[in-house]
Amino acid sequence: MASTSNDNVPQHMNAPENASDELEPGACHDSILNPTDSFEEFASEMSSSLRETCLTTKSSTISEIQSEILETAEDPKLKAAKSSDDLQTKDGSMSASASNSNLIEENGDDTDDDKDYLQSPELVNKEKHVFILSTAGKPIYSRYGNEDKLAGLCGVIQALVSVIEEQNQDILRFINTKDCKAVFLVKGPLILVAVSKSNESETQLVLQLTYAFNQIVSLLTLTQLNRIFEQRRNYDLRRLLAGAERLIDHLLVFMEKDPAFLLGAVRCLPLPEKARENITNAITTTCHKIRDLVFAIMIAGNQLITLVRMKKYTLHPSDIHLLFNLIRSSESFKTAESWTPICLPKFDATGFLHGHVSYISEDCQACLLLLTVQRDAFTTLSQAKHTIAEKMRRANCLVAINNALNRNEELSTTKPLKHIGIPEIRHFMYKCKSTAQLFSSDPISLDRLQDYRLRHKEGGDIVDKKITKLSDIDYVRNYRKFCNQIHCVATPAKLIFRSSSQDTILSWVTNGFELYVTFDPLMEKDHAIKAVDRLLRWIKKEEERIFIMNAPTF
Amino acid sequence: MKVIEAKIVVLGSQGVGKTSLVVRYIGKMFSKHVSPTIGASFFTCNISVENARVKLQVWDTAGQERFRSMAPMYYRNANAALLVFDITSMQSFTAIKGWVKELQSNVPEAMVLSVVGNKSDLESLRAVPYNEATQYAATIGAAYCETSALHDQGIEKVFKNTAISLLQLSSSNLVSSLRSYDSTEEKIPTASTTNDRATHTAKVELPAWSIDSIAHGEPQKNMCC
Ligand SMILES: Nc1nc2c(ncn2[C@@H]2O[C@H](COP(=O)(O)OP(=O)(O)OP(=O)(O)O)[C@@H](O)[C@H]2O)c(=O)[nH]1
Ligand SMILES: [Mg+2]
């Protein structure tokens, strides 16, 4: 993380006039999200010793909430109902299903085929591979190709990892070759590997692998994952992940294109202050008496609309990203109200919350998640949802959401660059650190994401074609290097200014925010700094629309 | 008019067409692009039979293995179950037997069971003989129907038969979780979700589940749906 000294920063940038005594844009006293530095995670990952790679599950937040509710429950009947609501029952049957799985044993005969397969068009010339296997060397997931045919490769990876572990008492972290990086992450019973030719740093790759691991935890819980492999080291986890591969596929694409992951921040749907307030009120007034409800989260198009929480509990941006990914990847939520277990690894990796998931209405693509610790709450939550939707409709919130989603030209936040009126700025992204929220000038439209996804699904091949018009994705690609320098643990930079014949990029980190701006080529530094000043003032002016500035509770 | 409210759970392996069946019946359409169910989806529908109305709460569960252990949450208090398999997959038929065992040991009250062989349009790929499925269904006291969500065949009948059996079950007064009332006495809740039956009402102790206590499907002259 960056140091707090501001030596390199020009004086007038520290304190833009008129804003000196104010908080940085987007900051507020209470945050719904845990302010984080995604790079902290990397640091802790890297400092873990060999012993710690075996994950222990710490105390459960979910049971903490459950017992708290119990203590305050006067109704003895309620108590009885709750105490039977532990995770034991399902865990019991899970272990049963794990043990009677029919295990297909591979034999070594097919290694020759394997070698050929590694040269097949399905696998060569990809920008980035991700492989997940068990510590016993069984393939679990491959981004490209068929992991069944990768048993040989997985065996090699497993051997590499375990040789270094056993013979050298060390952990294999990176292998660098001329044009390619391989990054290894051993987490509990899983080994995750990224092999990349992209410009992503080792840090960024480890973060992505951590996300992939958390995605799996989110589907199974850490408790279940550990237990399965304790019981059967050779277990074929694909059985339990059947149908969920697409969640990992989507997550990998999502991480490559969305700066939210790079910055460890959440994007909010820009909304008029009043509209957001009405939505939040619709939720709080409806739900304040539902005692087991932990979070009510409304999202649309990978953006947060509002989050109402149980007192004392906040969410980590990475858990929100996993929820975004779940909603984006699961068309079935559009068909009907759903009731599903969801584990949020940062909140509590050991257990499931129960989620009521539904879209607000046919004519509004906002999705409401009501997360509770009570597994019998469906009917209550279903009623609550209908009440919330009704209140929102009456307060014209649906129109406001649709306007924002359809990127109505009349909104200042739709085309911020036009609105700010600094023609030299081509693109920017801003993160408010204390609230872990993000705003960028050109959020990826869903169509464009679709193109990108198709491109990657149907190949993910490296193409040398020159890009004519840069998209958000390409800008973010360019920022990666700067982001990495700014977060470099050994020698963090505060301000980087690089001017070239293609563009000029300025990255600036303070205690309160991170800012990345792309200007026209060959910008003068002074000129750029003045522009940034104006930009920050615009963000400050619009902060109530583009950020969630409070942290409502039930 | 007599109104009964019942909960029905749809069980079966991944991809056998559970959602397609339910959406075909309730939404009157078929989409090639239904996506895998996550957890379980909730639908409601009304069926009129023999001068009575059956209000069904349908729980369409996910077949993915990772949700297997969640199933009790969805079939608890259910009055009926559709056990769906894909006639082109023997494995999916075998899975039904596992579900039946599980229901038998976990659901104390009588239940209307129907075994449904879906994708009957794929006759050329059939892997489960019609007779085998019929015989199995008979051993558990269930009706057997074959359906095609694609061609909208047999589905209407599955739901109708279930409704009729539920009606019989409710008049037997054996089942406390099956709510019935007369619509002239009590106003029918309009919104599907405003009814509170699914919440934990105290249960009357009843003899353990046994084959005898299952309501049998409407005796069928013509077993081909
Ligand atoms: N030919 C044929 N295909 C069908 C039929 N019913 C469903 N399908 C197809 O089978 C696939 C799976 O259908 P779903 O309805 O999603 O299956 P499901 O049982 O709900 O699956 P899960 O939710 O994952 O448990 C889809 O591609 C459907 O189009 C049918 O009657 N005939
Ligand atoms: Mg389904």
UniProtKB/TrEMBL annotation, chain A:
Domain FUZ/MON1/HPS1 third Longin: 424-543
Biased composition annotated in UniProt, kind: Polar residues: 1-11, 90-104
Chain ranges of the FUZ/MON1/HPS1 first Longin domain: 128-251
Bias (Basic and acidic residues) ranges: 74-89
Region (Disordered): 1-34, 74-116
Domain of life from the UniProt record: Eukaryota
UniProt-listed InterPro entries: FUZ/MON1/HPS1_longin_1, FUZ/MON1/HPS1_longin_2, FUZ/MON1/HPS1_longin_3, Longin-like_dom_sf, Mon1
UniProt-listed GO biological process terms: endosome to lysosome transport via multivesicular body sorting pathway; protein targeting to vacuole
GO-annotated cellular components: Mon1-Ccz1 complex
Its job: Plays an important role in membrane trafficking through the secretory apparatus.
Family: Belongs to the MON1/SAND family.
Protein's name according to its UniProt entry: Vacuolar fusion protein MON1 homolog
Biological classification of the source: Eukaryota, Metazoa, Ecdysozoa, Arthropoda, Hexapoda
UniProtKB/TrEMBL annotation, chain B:
Keyword Nucleotide-binding: yes
Lineage summary: Eukaryota, Metazoa, Ecdysozoa, Arthropoda, Hexapoda
Annotated SUPFAM superfamilies: P-loop containing nucleoside triphosphate hydrolases
UniProt name for this protein: Uncharacterized protein
Family: Belongs to the small GTPase superfamily. Rab family.
InterPro entries: P-loop_NTPase, Small_GTP-bd, Small_GTPase
UniProtKB keywords: Nucleotide-binding
Pfam family, one: Ras
GO molecular function, one term: GTPase activity
